[in-house]
């Protein structure tokens, strides 16, 4: 008997997560970040980053969920010199 989590159960969870993501973003028309919060805090109790990685993986696999994963957004790093260009009034 192998140790660890059951791969079948993880696959079923990931499929259910994708269906719920589709429901919140397409049916209920929630913004993707709000949908991630609902999925993370109320339904699946895993991090938002983990949810997005599951959705990205499922969308690459080509499962017909009509998913559109959100690209990773990197915040620009501003220096003090750059911020001085915007005067405070």
Describe the 3D structure.
The chain has helices at 7-27, 32-44, 48-61, 80-83. With 89 residues, it is mainly α. It has a domain at 7-61. Helix 1 crosses helix 2 and helix 1 packs across helix 3 (48-61). The longest helix is centred in the N-terminal third of the chain and has 21 residues, at 7-27.
Distance between the termini: 68 Å
Poorly predicted runs are none
Please report the total strand number as a whole number: 0
Measured by DSSP, the beta-strand proportion falls in under 5%
Q: How many helical stretches?
A: 4
**Class based on secondary structure composition and strand pairing:** mainly alpha
Mean pLDDT: 84
Shape: elongated
Query: What value does the Rg take, in angstroms?
Result: 18 Å
Give the fraction of residues assigned to helices: 55-70%
Largest sheet: none
Provide the succession of SSEs: HHHH
